[in-house]
């Protein structure tokens, strides 16, 4: 199909930071790919380039961050020729594509949740989407409804379930005076800790532990919106290590 206008909308949620949300391409070098990269949303679009290289149509736009938080995010893409409005969670970004062409010429299937292996280097380096999508609408077609009623030709590749499984995580809420204390592991040379957190407060203590035999301590905190790690080792000359990110 060859379109001058496109309207694409959907909602998604995932805990993965990488994945192709949808993809379409054509024989003339046109393509459109919406994907997550490092938990940010990236739209790659090409309305056509010529072989001489004087017209180069590739355009890439990035928006959002931390989109792997397993919360619903909404996307709305509106294209009229080279003018694009990309809206993520009500935040709209307007841009114009490179090149001189106005039509998006897609000869092959449009895929949602991944892209078919084409043998191109770009296809095998991209991960398929892992998570949930709803309200997928492509140029007036309700894709999720058509998929559920098996009205799409060709049909789904792989197993699709029309429900969204919630992750089995149990969050803990801390107020200003509460904390959680767990027993240490004696005679262990390794100290390892991992966790997810969310807060609006710019300062606060996240983790603290004393080492056995008065060898020092480790402290992880938020200081003015940055995560800082402080390691104090009592029996070394350079006895304090500070890391901030």
UniProtKB/TrEMBL annotation:
Domain Laminin G: 1-164
Pfam families tied to this protein: Laminin_G_2 (PF02210)
PROSITE patterns for this protein: LAM_G_DOMAIN
Record's protein name: CNTP2 protein
